[in-house]
Amino acid sequence: MRKSLFLLLPLVVTNAHAVYVDVRHEYLDDSKANYDRAYISHRFANGVGFAIEAISKSGGDDTNKAFNDLETQGNEYTISYQFKTR
């Protein structure tokens, strides 16, 4: 019974949520390096939004292997507000 209620829960929820997810992988042939980027953003109904972007590359002894000893290349955090004009 509990599992049935848990599986039906998404049908009962009345709020609408929108999330943007962008994941990219890039391989540079000349340097034989793998780069990855993940971008996640969300905007609430009141106009406030936020976004997080994380960039990393494969490191260690063998940068040719994807997802090998990931090194952070930078992060970006954004908070925004979208307003309506009359």
Describe the structure concisely for a colleague.
With 86 residues, this protein is mainly beta.
Q: What's the rounded overall pLDDT mean?
A: 79
Based on the structure, what is the oligomeric state of the protein chains? Answer: single chain
Strand order of the largest sheet: 1-2-3-4
Helix/strand/pairing class, anyone?
mainly beta
Uncertain stretches of 5 or more adjacent residues: none
The helical percent reads 10-25%
Gross geometry: flat
Q: Determine Rg (CA atoms, Å).
A: 19 Å
Q: Tell me about the biggest sheet?
A: 4 strands, antiparallel
Helical element count?
1
Q: Please, could you describe this protein's structure?
A:
One of its GO terms (molecular function) is porin activity. Keywords: Signal. Residues 1-18 form the signal peptide. This protein has a 4-stranded antiparallel sheet with strand order 1-2-3-4, with no helix packed on it. It is flat, with a radius of gyration of 19 Å. The model has no long low-confidence stretch (mean pLDDT 79). The protein has one helix at 2-12; strands at residues 19-28, 33-43, 48-58, 70-81. Strand 1 (19-28) and strand 2 form a beta hairpin. It has 1 helix and 4 strands, in the order αββββ. The protein has 86 residues and is mainly beta.
